[in-house]
Design brief:
Blueprint: E1 2-5, E2 16-19, H1 22-38, H2 42-56, H3 60-74
Amino acid sequence: MKSMTCKQLGGACDMVFKGNTFNEIAELSKAHGTHMLKQGDEAHLRAMEAMRDIMAKPSGLSDWMADKKRLFASLPEIDSE
């Protein structure tokens, strides 16, 4: 199991997500982001705008995903507790 923070995933806070795969962590992050956007959290709204800019580029999303997957792969394993 590994952990990544919201900030490591391009978000705005230090919320920690834990999972065995990058996709598990990405799903947790997505749910968190959706929740924060519904709350109108300004910092997360700005982070979402930055993601939109990344996704507007032709290879933006695939480059971002590859970078985050490399980061996930480089992280140490943690206890599952």
